[in-house]
Amino acid sequence: MNILYLAHRIPYPPNKGDKIRAFNEIKFLSRRHTVDVCCLVDTPADERHVEPLKKYCRTVTYVKINAKLKKAFSVLSAIFSGKTCTEIFFHSKKLQRQIDQLISGGNYDIIYIFCSSMASYVRNAGNIARVIDFVDIDSDKWIQYAKYARFPLKWLFKREGELLQKLECKILSWTQASFLVTERETEFFAHLPHGNKVYAIPNGIDRGFFDIDKTPCDDFLAGENYVCFTGAMDYFPNEDAVVFFYENIYPLIKPHAPGLKFYIVGSNPTDKVRKLADDKDVVVTGTVDDIRPYIRHAKISVIPLRMARGIQNKILEAISMGLPVVCTSNAAEGLALRNGIDFYVEDDESKFARRTLELLNNPCLKNEMVRSAQMLIDQFYDWENNLNKMESVMASAVKIKKNAEGGI
Question: Are residues 152 and 190 in the same domain?
Answer without folding.
Answer: yes
